[in-house]
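In this section we walk through a basic example: taking a raw amino acid sequence and producing a predicted 3D structure, encoded as discrete structure tokens. The instruction is simple. Fold the sequence below.
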Amino acid sequence: MPEHDRPDAEDYGLAKAARSGHATQRNNDPDDLALLESAVHAAGTIARSYYGGDYKRWNKAGGSPVTEADLAVDAFLKQTLLAARPAYGWLSEESADNQARLSAPNVFVVDPIDGTVAFLKNRPHFTICAAVVEAGRPRAGVVYNPITEECFAAREGGGATLNGNPIHVSDRGRIEGTRMLGPKNTFAEGWPQMELTALSSIAYRVALVAAGRHDAMVSLSVKRDWDLAAADLIVQEAGGLLTDEAGQKLIYNRPSATQRASIAAGPHLHALLLAHLASRCKGP
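The resulting token sequence is shown next.
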């Protein structure tokens, strides 16, 4: 699609409304979840305008891919969300980090396209993720797949939903036969037989666990706050757990936005997975 045909913030009226007299009213609106849902749905239209088309792509300094779609979605979300909540901090994969976020009571944590590899390959397994973090933990979060039109959402204490319908993790209580999401090389040896599925977006993996479509997700590689914050709250509110390999909850908006291994599952299966990982570390 030609550049002049790409939708932007003004096309949806969101940024304009935020700059108008409605902005003061929205700043006093405590419903951050409604704001996140509205913004990511609009951002999904931008992502779809690039998906499967011609667009610029390149590798960042660390070698990971990025596209102009990532930057367009990031710019839209930053403009829209901060216009509505100017006192909030900002942390995003595609924005330069501003350590002022550390002193902000609330922080938007955003991944404009989680699963860029899938996006590049025209696979519908990428998501747009946005969370509000307070005191190191997510208080509202949305993980949205704009191709499948799946919107996973949660607010603290309010349960988790998929397109407005309540969701819950599975009650599986054994590792063997688990519907597991994660890189297949993670489970190359020393694991019981499982149904393995690999998806690019880690947030999508966690959200699918929250919805009970898969039983667990294990990632033993370093991730970033924007990969996990929104999905963390969703799986928690769906009755599950997302922790590191030691069983500790993840803390967000620290000076370094890195997170170690992440394991998501229902409580019983989660405990079994942690025990299995611990036994593997100890060796025979």
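Looking at the output, two observations stand out. The longest helix spans residues 32-50. Confidence is low (pLDDT under 50) at residues 1-5, 7-29. In the next section we compare this with other chains.
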